[in-house]
Amino acid sequence: MNKDLLMPNHIGIIMDGNGRWAQKRGMIRTMGHKTAVGTLKKLCIHMADRGVKYASLYAFSTENFKRDIKEVEFLMNLFIESFKKEFDFIKEKKVRVLFSGRRKPLPKKVLEAMDQLVEDTKNYTDLTLNICLNYGSHAEIVDMTKKVCEMYHNGEISLENITEDFIQKNMYQDLPPLDFVIRTSGELRLSNFMMYQASYAEFYFPKVYFPDFTPEEFDKAIEVFQKRNRRFGGIENEVKSS
Ligand code: FPP
Predict the structure, then answer these.
(1) Which of 15, 132, 210 is the pocket-test mutation for ligand 1 (most atoms within 8 Å of CB)?
(2) How many domains is the chain partitioned into structurally?
(3) Is 57 domain-assigned?
(4) 100 in ligand 1 pocket by Cβ < 6 Å?
(5) What is the pTM of this model?
(6) Which domain, by its residues, includes 25?
(7) Which of 95, 102, 184, 240 is deepest in the core (most CB within 10 A)?
């Protein structure tokens, strides 16, 4: 990785393969999620050290509620425990935490832990971590549409106000577009993750399962990104990475 070259401003990470990581080792699936917390912690510290400004993490999709109730309960408890105990690095690294997704039907204790993290980190500006929890792109577009319709209905906006920039600002969070999306475990899908924000993102699909996605694997990914020629629909070599 060349530290003098541009880092992606906003990185999306689809943390896939926890279950398979555990099963490959003869463990129950949930052990993969538990191990993933440690991986995630190291990764966040590393991204902060590398000067990444925005990172969006796919922690739980709206569709993940279809999983076995025991796994869902395990994950909800893991979120509570992690937000309370494992996010101790945020103060030192000045990480601001935001959440994207629907609050319903998340359990009250998860919501309380999320709200506390947002409150505790609201003044930090170095790295913004956008945790997508009970998140889905389709749900986000539905919720944004309802919000905009309500504004129109209340006379707060007119049709001329509805621009691409306005739509972006009325998503769950007002964040810059994604530059780079990494999905671990070798699966080649977006799975309802930040579709609007990823329109011109570069994609990278390492084979490793998420618990094995070390800072070294992250640097390898950045090296690949730095070799990409981003055109944003323009002419080759005319537009460089932002
Ligand atoms: C996908 O792997 C992973 C998840 C649904 C959960 C992601 C959760 C974590 C990384 C835990 C920590 C997160 C936070 C924010 C504290 P999978 O179970 O679908 O793996 P598989 O495809 O091998 O079954």
Answers:
(1) 15
(2) 1
(3) yes
(4) no
(5) 0.94
(6) 10-136+176-233
(7) 184
